[in-house]
Amino acid sequence: MTKILIFSLFFLNLILFYFLNKKKIKNFFYKSKIQSVELDHVDQIFLNNQIDKKLYGPKSEVIVKNFCIQGNNNIVGMTSDYEAWIISSLSKISNNIFEFGTCSGKTTYLMALNSPDNAKITTLTLNPQDLKKIERNKFDNKVSYRNIINESIYDKFLFSKTKYENKIEVIFQNSLDFNEKLFLNKYDLIFIDGGHTFSIVKSDSEKSFEMLKSRGIILWHDFVPGKESAKNVVNYINTISKEKKIFHINNTSLCYYRKS
Ligand SMILES: C[S@@+](CC[C@H](N)C(=O)[O-])C[C@H]1O[C@@H](n2cnc3c(N)ncnc32)[C@H](O)[C@@H]1O
Questions:
Q1: What is the pLDDT, as a whole number, of residue 255?
Q2: 126, 84, 124: which is closest to 107 by C-alpha?
């Protein structure tokens, strides 16, 4: 009897430990199919300047215009400051930029602030009023689907009514209906950060491969193994990496692909 009790307690503790540390355990056993690289693998602009024997610093190419959103502002679906700096730096060398998923427009604004004066940024997003038309496919993660609803709340953006607005075109459309054939081989930089369900990530990515210029870069946001809402993003990128050379950027949730 005592033995059974001890065994049951041990077993219950094991289950409790698993649920409390689920993410860490999953990460421990996760074997990435994607190689992680340093930033200078993405582009030479990220190579450091040697200032002194032990001191390295940024080149002028990666000094950017930036702003931060204060914590009490409750804006959803944002990149980290480090990721925002990477995207801003790449925007400096991009004339045609496309973004899947605008949300508050934080990244769009940074792209407009940092890209050349004559650059054009197109950002595609769901109109909050069209949410009823979004359907969940049977392979689509429930949490990712719920996030689409929670993040599709803006129809005015951080860049609205600023002088940068004229560099930006907002398309309110379900990306599944977007006709990429009109924009083939056009973009230097594409940021995929729209719906995180499998069907949407797959469709946005396949369109992006077609829309990308030679030497252009695609960035995916939210490659976070073990995170429930990013599950479909990780699955898709792992699957497609058998055909396309995709790399994860160290210390970020970004993956990138450069068209040769
Ligand atoms: C994570 S947020 C984007 C965050 C934004 N890129 C940023 O860095 O601030 C996701 C956005 O994707 C949009 N979205 C989700 N599913 C979409 C779809 N099928 N078509 C177009 N936009 C979609 C949502 O409306 C939301 O604005």
A1: 98
A2: 84
